[in-house]
Design a protein that fits this description.
The structure is a single chain. By secondary structure, the chain is an alpha+beta fold. It has 3 helices and 7 strands; from the N terminus they run H-E-E-E-E-E-E-E-H-H. Strand 4 and strand 5 form a beta hairpin.
Amino acid sequence: VKCQDVATHVNEFMHKKEAHAKVLTIQASFYPSQFFAQAGRSFVRQGDLLKHTSDGSSTRRYHFFLFTDSIAYGQQIFKGYYKFHRLVSIFDVSDPSEVSNDENRELQFIIKGDEKDLRLEAETEALKTEWLTDIRGLVAKLEENKEVVGFPNRRMSSFAQRFEQHNGRPGDKPKTKKKRRASTWV
């Protein structure tokens, strides 16, 4: 084993540890408190974006946190703290300006999520490009991992997946352990 290989491994480990610590810090900045930390999830980027309502009638500024598998957002309560709005698992991203010449859509992009699609708008073309590049890279990695691991090709939130793994399907009776009787000796 070369020293360079060991150094690379240590650097990768430290980077993952720092990214996980960042997830925990973000998690603590939301009210009501949220649980974002899970295996394989790490922080990618954050920033303010405009979110368009589903009918396109209005917009609202939120602070977004992009993770390796999802995006969370909320309204800033005060510096560094946010009122939680939603966590959406990411399945795809599209650029409406690529299919439409509408000038109003020039800075917009759409994140296709498990429960909801988000139409977002960046302040500048450069910022939009940065978000799109990061999200497209994450989507490609998620697709690659699905093929390797063999996940079903359906939209299911990560919470629902974890719930099914640990508790069965929603609506099932909770699993209970049988009580053991103590042995009696005569």
